[in-house]
Specification:
The protein has about 325 residues and is α+β, with helices and mostly antiparallel strands. The chain has 6 helices and 16 strands. Strands 1, 2, 3, 4, 7, 10, 11, 14 and 16 form a 9-stranded mixed sheet that branches. Strands 13-12-15 form a 3-stranded antiparallel sheet. It has a two-stranded antiparallel ribbon with strand order 5-6. Helix 1 packs across helix 2 and helix 4 packs across helix 5.
Length: about 325
């Protein structure tokens, strides 16, 4: 059964907000868990940009987080987490440490600095604005928030790429809800896991057709050696189940299988692919971990597909002209 909203906010205790910069395609997306959520993380790409991920190890002390931030702007975009912390602190949310409450806000970024003026990046004010916009209503998808400047299919050159974006999906299994939100900025192509067909990715030399990057590589076409960290798919998978930190880390690990089904190639030297897992515990259910991980991978793959299906083409002064999947379908 798929809940009607098909959104990360189908999970009780989760709010989502986007900030999209009007000056160039970039932005950030915040996932708020103000009541606290057990969290885990798994980093697979070779060029990650992250904050507070070490804290999520089961060996370390803090048990819950209060938000997760996804941002464009490469490593500069990590500054946006400071705005999320400020917003939470103003509302008394955080771990009590002596005289203060310290909000716990893990974060991950993707590289979109080649799209427009690279001096424009999400900062603390952007993170704060995303919190102000957050609600438990279905979040926007496509070319918004952390996915505003996202692109896919760059392994054979950025001039042959297509538009990426933010996508979400949710699945209900019995009393459990599992959902994902993913900002897709991959080097590789996005494929429909049901058919194996490329939906968005590298295009042929004339730009009018999808190339199929993996088939091109097998024919001997050489990649353009993108710089490390010049791509990256980042996301959050969430559930209302009761999990320990160790179990949340396992769910984040299994959710990466959803990326492997929907992005090809994935986890490359130019990607910093990172998935967070959140468990709000609000259903009170203690799940079968194998079942939960399998559903997490499935919902992550669906979210990746939705990200490119909902994206809008990129064009304008000072910007590359890149089509979206909907344009290629026409």
């Amino acid at each position: 059964m798929i809940p009607r909203a098909n959104s990360l906010t189908d999970v009780s205790g989760i709010k989502v907000g986007h900030y999209t910069d009007s000056r160039r395609p970039t932005g950030c997306t915040v996932v708020l868990t103000e009541g606290g959520a057990v969290a885990g993380v798994d980093v697979r790409g070779a060029a990650p940009g992250t904050r507070e991920t070490e804290l999520l190890s089961p060996l370390n002390a803090v048990e819950q987080v209060h938000a997760v931030l996804l941002a464009g702007g490469s490593a500069f975009g990590l500054d946006a987490a400071g705005g999320v912390m400020r917003w939470l602190e103003e509302r008394g949310v955080g771990v009590e440490v002596g005289p203060v409450r310290v909000p716990i806000v893990p974060a991950a970024i993707l590289f979109d600095l080649w799209v427009g003026d690279s001096r424009i990046r999400p900062g603390a004010d952007a993170g704060y604005a995303a919190c102000e916009a957050a609600s438990d209503a279905p979040e926007g998808q496509g070319s918004v928030g952390a996915g505003a400047g996202a692109t896919v299919g760059k392994l054979l050159g950025v001039e042959r790429a297509m538009k990426g974006g933010v996508g979400s999906a949710s699945i209900q299994v019995g009393e459990l809800t599992v959902a994902a939100l993913v900002a897709v900025n991959a080097v590789g192509d996005v494929v429909d896991p049901r058919t194996g067909a490329v939906v968005a990715g590298a295009r042929t030399d004339n730009g009018s057709e999808l190339l199929n990057t993996m088939q091109a590589l097998l024919r001997g076409e050489l990649p353009t050696h993108p710089q490390p960290g010049s791509a990256t798919t980042i996301g959050v998978v969430a559930t209302d189940a009761v999990l320990t930190k160790a179990q949340a880390n396992k769910i984040a690990q299994m959710a990466h299988d959803g990326l492997a089904r929907s992005i090809n190639p994935v986890h490359t030297m130019a990607d910093g692919d990172t998935i967070f897992a959140l468990a709000t515990g609000q259903s009170g259910a203690v799940p079968n971990l194998t079942l939960l991980g399998a559903v997490a991978a499935e919902v992550t793959a669906r979210a990746v597909l939705n990200a490119v299906l909902q994206a809008q083409s990129l064009e304008g002064p000072g910007l590359p002209t890149l089509p979206a999947a909907r344009d290629m379908a026409r």
